[in-house]
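Structure tokens please, single chain.
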Amino acid sequence: MAYTPVTINTGDEINVAWGNKVESNLERIGNYRGVVAGVANLPNIAMIDEGDWYWCKSERIAKIKSSGAYVSLNAVCEVASSAPASATGVLWYDTANNQLKMYNGSSWQPIGEGPIDTSQPLSSLLTAQFVQKPSLVLSAINNTAMWNYLLKNSTVRTELVKHRLYLDTMLGIGGANLELDTDMEDAILSSIDALAIALAIPSFWLNSDFLDYWLDNYFTKNNFLTGTTAVIASMNSKYGFRITNTGHYLSNFPYISVDLDLTDFDDLDFWYSYTESGSAHVYLYIGADLKTTWTVNGSGTHNVDISGYSGVQTVKFLWNDGVVFDITDLTLS
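Here you go.
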């Protein structure tokens, strides 16, 4: 709507028609309430009317009351430690987590991945995000400074183990880096508690390099140089241990075993595949107790009741003749 210019001289009386034009023009731009020093100086939202707005001097933005909350007048971006009033397409820079997010109509979704601040302890970072997106860790492993921060710093290493992140960190790293970092190796593999937890996590069985390292360094193997081999092979959509035996034994039977703390666990579960040749038997021992004997070809998930055991026990698979025996997804629960 256009207006005819009006010249007002000092001392002139404002007539009704001119005053109406001023009032109408102000209504077109909303209920402007003035300038405040900054967002922190805005009045209590309950004390103003819908549509009232202020100019925030330090941030150089306009804030308007909309649906009972202050929002930026341009409705494009908010910078705050807590989520602003949501509207589809609004951007919010989350200062608490240093992350840009957008409201998609139902929830705030992060845009990109949050930064890793190496000056802060891991416990103050986005632990949940590390768990959900292990690529945040893995993408930085080739960076020497990040490797030293994540794995060679004793405080952070303890937190990695505590939050189970050590296992996700191992995906893509494998045994080569463990051999170079004995502190991390001890923290991950020398702890019976850590090993018990590792076995129970499916991602443990997806890393052939890590399993190979674990088999060579932490399993006990007997008589593997006389016709018996143990390798890491693909099975049941994962990796696992494949034992192949071509000999026949009357004593000093070949086996593989691992020591696990069975305290407070009730079940030992695993997937197996068994193919025998001749009069082969495969035996499963827990300590001195014979729990299972395989004599017929087959495969599937096997369960062993371990509720009566406590402390560190030797879990041993032993055989006496020609077999191929696969095992994966070994878990404690």
